[in-house]
Structure to design on (736 residues):
């Protein structure tokens, strides 16, 4: 069994960490949890030179997940070690290099996620405010190949579960059709497609998201058909980077996630590396933006047109107007009114992944005035300009 | 003495069993073996059946029958024959090995693995089983890799591998047969007087008649080489004598501290296996035939035919002991048996 001793350490950089318990959430056991517990057990056995135990564990995993390629690869290595030294994962002679690499990357991603559980007292920075009727939020970390689900508990996100996921073959920052990249941004589920309406490769279900959104269009990003979907029948699990831009889960995990998804409501935030905030910091950030929105509402309601317009950023765009055109129009309209009543309900605020301060805000706007009334769903993009929150885009949701 | 063989994929699994119970039986067995090697399978079968009619439990006869059935491509019957042998003689590694080869031929690598592991459990230094096991593990591994990497059976590499295994069985046979016919006259001559109590003297005479290759190649060093050779052969004889006396302590003492324990086992578990295997039979005879010694540096390699007889089984196989001198004594650092 020469070589196998260094198998896990050199290939997967795992130490005694595997001994610690995983800390998966309570509830229905996901395939992610099941598989990663099993893999951790296998690698721990290999690390401690218990190769027979490792093989038994691997065979048990294969019995549970017969078309799990990574498990077959490990089984191959454990058997091959009897015939010749195995120095790294995937010692198959004449193995296609890219396929072995895919499986190695999956092993690394899964075992890292097993070891590095989401911080218990922190939440993804992006979930600033969920609407009361948004029961769950989905946050993706492409770098970690992980999809996190949060529950809305009185506006505060609470961790529910996390799943191994795959994204675009050529990575992130989708720009155009066919670039095999996954977009980074704030999206929501727009439809639910059942298995019967899908080709096999989409697995048990698919949930299209609204890429490209208004902000993508504003930046000239194109392409379409970015879905959250399952896995085709030829394999249990896909490589970390294996889709044409979609976010994919195992069917088992997708079926657990499925009842939590609300079409038209559930936010799907795709980041390449989640930023985590303590509850205190999250609250501070959230309050400062809430105040800015409230101030904007008051200034509009009070018909203080110039202070109202000061809430808009220099590079503002909305309803096909730039800041100058928007200002002229608002001045004109407001001049003809004796009073305005404005109430906002169901506010949601989702920060964009990345270093720019950009937050998508949506709400139900109820507008009444001396000469015109109307209700609408509004969508705004807020950004920081000179240290102050300002509106950079505004339109109907 | 006759050699009969069944070949595994790469390593030719030479299985040799010899009947020395009586001359008559030995002759009968020898004749059957001759017929089998000559490809006269029907006659061989007739003969073995009539032999087994008088001695239905005889291990050699049944083993031969298994080989004939294998040659006749009656795999299922061959499997049954070897399986029964493993049931009646669980201490014999060869039937397990042949069973494994048959299973492997059917693509039942998991069963082949189990059989080979049984062979090695009964005989930890059985080199053929180790080699075969390596091949079977590689096959099992490649099946797993196929599933992992979607290399289906249409994959050319996988296909040619299987075809090659079939072809090697054929060529392996021819090679082994050639070896067998070469070995035959020498061994027949040596076989005659076999007092089980004095194998050492029988062997000591051999090297004089057959100078080693090493001595011939280096005439200047000849006296020293001959001297060393005698020492080495004496050590081999001590080893055989300790084994025959079932003196486990003396037997194990001939193995060097750095002896290459077969099958990646620990020294202690290997020793326990040897002890069990040496002490199990009521009576053992061990004879070393036609040893040839080659010395290189401080290390010697002794190749000989090992003739083993117990109340349970009689077997002959070729053996190579690699020895090195430690504290004035030649000790075994590696042991290989099989073809």
């Amino acid at each position: 069994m020469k070589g196998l001793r260094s198998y896990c350490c050199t290939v997967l950089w795992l130490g005694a960490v595997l001994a610690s318990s995983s800390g998966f959430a309570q509830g229905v056991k996901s395939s992610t949890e099941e598989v990663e517990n099993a893999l951790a057990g296998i690698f721990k056995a290999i690390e401690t030179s218990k190769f027979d135990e490792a093989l038994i564990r691997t065979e048990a995993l294969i019995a549970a997940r017969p078309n799990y390629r990574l498990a077959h690869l490990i089984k191959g290595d454990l058997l091959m070690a009897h015939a010749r030294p195995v120095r790294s994962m995937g010692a198959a002679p004449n193995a296609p290099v890219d396929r072995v690499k895919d499986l190695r990357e999956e092993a690394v991603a899964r075992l890292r996620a097993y070891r590095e559980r989401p911080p218990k007292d922190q939440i993804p920075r992006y979930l600033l405010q969920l609407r009361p009727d948004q029961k769950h939020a989905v946050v993706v970390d492409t770098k970690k190949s992980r999809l996190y689900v949060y529950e809305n508990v009185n506006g505060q996100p609470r961790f529910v579960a996390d799943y191994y996921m795959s994204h675009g073959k050529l990575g992130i920052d989708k720009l155009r059709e066919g670039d095999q990249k996954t977009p980074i941004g704030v999206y929501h589920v727009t439809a639910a497609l059942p298995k019967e309406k899908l080709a096999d490769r989409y697995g048990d279900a698919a949930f299209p998201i609204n890429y490209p959104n208004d902000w993508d269009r504003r930046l000239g990003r194109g392409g379409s058909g970015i879905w959250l979907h399952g896995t085709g029948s030829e394999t249990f699990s896909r490589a970390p980077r294996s889709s044409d831009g979609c976010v994919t889960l195992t069917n088992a995990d997708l079926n657990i996630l499925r009842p939590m998804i609300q079409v038209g409501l559930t936010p799907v935030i795709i980041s390449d590396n989640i930023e985590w905030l303590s509850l205190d910091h999250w609250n501070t950030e959230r309050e400062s933006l809430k105040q800015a929105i409230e101030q904007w509402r008051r200034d509009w309601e009070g018909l203080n047109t110039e202070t109202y317009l000061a809430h808009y950023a220099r590079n503002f765009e909305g309803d096909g107007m730039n800041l100058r055109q928007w200002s002229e129009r608002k001045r004109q309209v407001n001049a003809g009114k004796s009073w305005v009543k404005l109430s906002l309900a169901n506010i949601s605020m989702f920060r964009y992944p990345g270093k720019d301060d950009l937050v998508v805000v949506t709400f139900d706007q109820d507008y009444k005035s001396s000469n015109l009334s109307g209700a609408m769903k509004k969508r705004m993009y807020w950004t920081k300009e000179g240290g102050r929150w300002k509106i950079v885009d505004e339109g109907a949701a | 003495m006759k050699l009969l063989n069944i070949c595994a994929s790469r390593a030719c699994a030479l299985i040799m069993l010899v009947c020395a119970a009586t001359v008559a039986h030995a002759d009968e067995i020898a004749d059957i073996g001759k017929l089998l090697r000559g490809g006269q399978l029907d006659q061989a079968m007739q003969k073995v059946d009539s032999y087994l009619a008088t001695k239905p439990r005889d291990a050699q006869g049944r083993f031969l029958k298994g080989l004939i059935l294998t040659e006749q491509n009656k795999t299922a019957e061959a499997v049954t024959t070897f399986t029964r042998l493993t049931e009646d003689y669980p201490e014999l590694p060869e039937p397990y090995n042949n069973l494994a080869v048959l299973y492997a031929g059917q693509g039942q690598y998991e069963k082949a693995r189990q059989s080979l592991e049984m062979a090695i459990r009964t005989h930890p230094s059985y080199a053929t089983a180790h080699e075969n096991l390596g091949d079977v593990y590689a096959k099992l591994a490649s099946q797993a890799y196929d599933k992992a990497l979607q290399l289906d059976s249409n994959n050319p590499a996988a296909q040619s591998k299987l075809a090659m295994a079939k072809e090697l069985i054929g060529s392996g046979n021819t090679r082994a047969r050639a070896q067998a016919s070469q070995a035959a006259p020498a061994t027949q001559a040596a076989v005659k007087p076999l007092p089980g109590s004095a194998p050492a003297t029988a062997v000591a005479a051999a090297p004089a008649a057959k100078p080693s290759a090493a001595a011939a190649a280096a005439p200047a060093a000849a006296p020293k080489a001959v001297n060393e050779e005698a020492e080495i052969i004496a050590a081999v004889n001590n080893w055989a004598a300790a084994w025959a006396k079932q003196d486990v302590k003396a037997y194990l003492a001939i193995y060097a501290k750095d002896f290459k324990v077969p099958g990646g086992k620990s020294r202690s578990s290997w020793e326990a296996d040897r002890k069990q295997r040496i002490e199990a039979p009521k009576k053992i005879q061990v004879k070393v035939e036609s040893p040839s010694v080659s010395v290189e540096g401080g290390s010697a390699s002794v190749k000989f035919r090992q003739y083993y007889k117990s109340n349970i089984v009689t077997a002959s196989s070729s053996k190579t002991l690699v020895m090195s001198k430690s504290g004035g004594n030649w000790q075994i650092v590696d042991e290989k048996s099989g073809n």
In short: Chain B has two domains: 4-189, 194-338. The interface with chain A takes residues 133-135, 137-138, 140-145, 147-151, 157, 264 of chain B (CB under 8 Å). The beta strands of chain B are 4-5, 14-15, 284-296, 299-310, 314-326, 329-338. Chain B has a mean pLDDT of 71.
